[in-house]
Write a structure and sequence with these properties.
Structural class of chain A: alpha+beta
Radius of gyration of chain A: 32 Å
Strand order of the largest sheet of chain A: 2-3-10-5-7-6
Number of helices of chain B: 8
Strand content of chain B: 25-35%
Structural class of chain B: alpha/beta
Largest sheet of chain A: 6 strands, mixed, barrel
Strand content of chain A: 15-25%
Strand order of the largest sheet of chain B: 6-7-8-3-9-10
Largest interface: A-B, 29 and 35 residues
Shape of chain A: elongated
Distance between the termini of chain A: 24 Å
Order of helices and strands of chain B: EEEHEEHEHHHEHEHEEH
Largest sheet of chain B: 6 strands, mixed
Shape of chain B: globular
Oligomer: heterodimer
Number of strands of chain A: 12
Helix content of chain B: 25-40%
Number of strands of chain B: 10
Helix content of chain A: 40-55%
Chain lengths: 406, 233
């Protein structure tokens, strides 16, 4: 029997049993969709997080107050230490040989107001180097000026959303903002950049670090970004920084340095596990679809016993009888898989529209894999019924008493 | 063309052994027209199934075209069925979702013939059976006589040497039944070997050679009146 004839023969069958075929198609489509959708979301989340960390250059170290004793897992994002990390510490680090820039960071939420409008905004105290290290670009005006760490100046750079919330369509540059008892002149507006790992820079306000210390009434730094001149001495520079801090902190090693690589690999491990777990859950739905296929095929074999008998009487070899059932299952599986992939792509397209910053995309391996698994499952589960049909004795099949006469 | 030698067929039903066919000896020449008659349970359908290679004998030998068939696998028997034997059933055995044309075309499809080669063959059969204007109809849109003609068309489209008909008029009124049997006889006139199993006396008597079966034996054979007694053990 020719391939085209197998397809034509099965299409007539599928068309005749519309409801049954539709249900089967839906079962396969849903399981394929589940795999694609869940891996799409998992991958999107992973790419999003990795993308966030990639915003920092490879040659940037992050220093947190507090010492992390264990290895593996996620490094502590909020350090705890008895001794503060101070601006003087940051200055001392900046004087080290391989260090090209240091950005101290203080952050917190603060009520920011202009005229009668106010908004609780994420307030960051840092310096000019922060803009370079975090790759922040200014759409209007300019970045924070180059200042000694401990010098304050009543200026700020604000995110585009915050600008819109406080100024609407009116110009913001040169205007004054109020934050508790302090006033800041707006000197720059950030380019729209989207979320940045928990803090949305579009809603942030950036002020000189010394002003932030006053604002929050806090001397200790939240963290310090350290940019190295070259990657070559990374290990050595890290040790030198630790040694320096230890010396400055009376012999106590109470800071943690995170490299981008260690952070990335920790997150990547977790996120990969998550994606796999999610794919596994989707795989279970495939198994359910497979069992459904088997049941439907078994019913089909007993319903079509007389037809099988006829095919055998017409000289159809057992192999062809089996192939008729297997090809029907494959046609259903492939079209179901295709349908599932199309639907999941549509849904992910919608999701990308709703959350433009998260790259929801199903990797090719998941698409091909889900189609392959669907087909393999269908074939595997249809194999038993097909085998049963193929091995029926022709005379018994023809005389199937249970069936109505055709 | 066909030779049965001491052929038996028994079935195990529960703890009872039923002998459907007992030591049958039969020779059928090419182009013969036989009828097989007998009461229910006399083994006529079993004989037809064995002649059609749908069933296998318990003992004895069946030679088709001088070749023994008892050692053949199911695949081997399928090939012989496909190439040499056509079946006509009482209940037509048409596939309801296929049109008349597609039902007739089915053996050619199963044999893997290309669509271009299939079309003229099917057209010829449709014309021969005066079914051309019903070709696109599904079986449930056809009368009983038309359905059986479609079934005959399917049986002869592969140009078999042997046509086996099991109660071909059993589900038909007398007019359609007569038409169908005349059609089968015409095919026999064209050279096909025809064997009709029937319990209808008037149809059985039309055959040139009549077999009567009782209790799994050939009780009488119009070609050889001694069969019944000589084979009795």
């Amino acid at each position: 029997m020719r391939t085209a004839d197998f397809i034509a023969f099965n299409l007539k069958l599928i068309e005749r049993q519309r409801l049954r075929s539709a249900m089967l198609l839906a079962a396969i489509a849903i399981s394929v969709m589940a795999i694609n959708l869940l891996t799409g979301i998992g991958e999107g989340g992973k790419q999003f997080v990795l993308g966030e960390f990639n915003l920092l250059g490879k040659n940037v170290l992050i220093m947190l107050p507090g010492k992390k004793e264990t290895t593996g897992g996620i490094p502590p994002l909020t350090g705890e230490a008895t001794r503060d990390l101070t601006l003087r510490d940051a200055e001392a680090i900046a004087r080290l040989g391989n260090v090209s820039a240091v950005a101290p960071l203080i952050a917190g939420k603060m009520e920011i107001s202009h005229d009668k409008l106010s908004r609780e905004a994420f307030t960051i105290g840092s310096n000019r180097a922060f803009f370079d290290i975090r790759q922040l670009e200014v759409a209007q005006g300019k970045a924070l000026p180059q200042l000694p760490f401990e010098q304050s100046q009543a200026v700020c750079v604000i995110g585009s959303k915050l600008r819109k919330a406080l100024f609407g369509t009116k110009p913001a540059l040169g205007q004054w903002l109020r934050a508790s008892d302090n006033r800041f002149r707006v000197i720059g507006i950030l380019k729209d950049k989207g979320e940045g790992l928990g803090f949305d820079m579009n809603e942030a306000i950036i002020v000189p670090v010394a002003n932030a210390q006053a604002l929050f009434n806090q001397a200790g730094l939240f963290r310090v970004f350290i940019e190295l001149r070259s990657l070559d001495g990374l290990q050595k520079s890290q040790q030198r920084i630790i040694a320096l801090l230890k010396e400055r902190h009376e012999g106590e090693e109470d800071v943690t340095i995170i490299t981008q690589n260690s952070l990335l690999s920790a997150f990547e491990n977790i996120l990969n596990t998550l994606t796999l777990a999610v794919a596994g859950i989707a795989g279970i739905s495939m198994l359910v679809a497979g069992i459904l296929i088997m049941n439907v095929s078994l019913i089909a074999v007993s319903q079509r016993t007389r037809e099988i008998g006829l095919l055998k009487a017409l000289g159809c070899p057992a192999r062809t009888v089996a192939l008729i059932f297997l090809s029907e299952a494959s046609i259903m599986a492939l079209s179901g898989a295709l349908l599932g992939i199309v639907i999941s792509e549509l849904l992910l397209y919608v999701a990308r529209g709703l959350y433009p910053t998260i790259p929801f995309t199903t990797p090719l391996w998941a698409q091909l894999g889900s189609a392959l698994i669907a087909t393999a499952t269908a074939l595997l589960f249809a194999a038993i019924p097909a085998h049963k049909a193929a091995n029926m004795a022709p005379v018994d099949a023809l005389l199937d008493k249970k069936a109505r006469q055709a | 063309m066909i030779e049965l030698r001491q052929l038996c067929r028994s079935f195990q039903i529960g703890d009872q052994c039923v002998h459907a066919l007992e030591h049958i000896d039969l020779k059928i020449e090419r182009g013969e027209y036989l009828s097989v008659m007998g009461p229910s349970g006399s083994g006529k359908s079993t004989l037809l199934n064995i002649l059609g290679l749908l069933d296998t004998p318990s003992c004895g030998e069946y030679l088709l075209n001088q070749a023994a068939t008892s050692q053949l696998s199911e695949e081997g028997r399928a090939t012989l069925r496909r190439e040499h034997i056509g079946f006509v059933f009482q209940s037509y055995h048409l596939i309801p979702r296929l049109t008349a044309r597609e039902n007739i075309e089915l053996p050619l499809i199963l044999a893997g013939m290309a669509p271009k080669q299939r079309k003229p063959l099917v057209d010829k059969v449709l014309t021969r059976l005066a079914l051309t204007d019903r070709a696109a109809h599904a079986p449930n849109q056809l009368s009983g006589g038309q359905r059986q003609r479609v079934a005959i068309g399917r049986a002869i489209v592969m140009k078999p040497q042997l046509l086996l008909a099991d109660e071909p008029t059993g589900n038909l009124d007398s007019v359609s039944g007569r038409e169908v049997i005349e059609l089968l006889e015409e095919l026999n006139d064209e050279g096909i070997t025809l064997l009709v199993v029937t319990h209808d006396q008037s149809i059985g008597e039309r055959a040139r050679r009549e077999l009567k079966m009782i209790d799994g034996r050939i009780a009488s054979d119009s070609a050889n009146n001694t069969v019944a007694t000589s084979t009795a053990p």
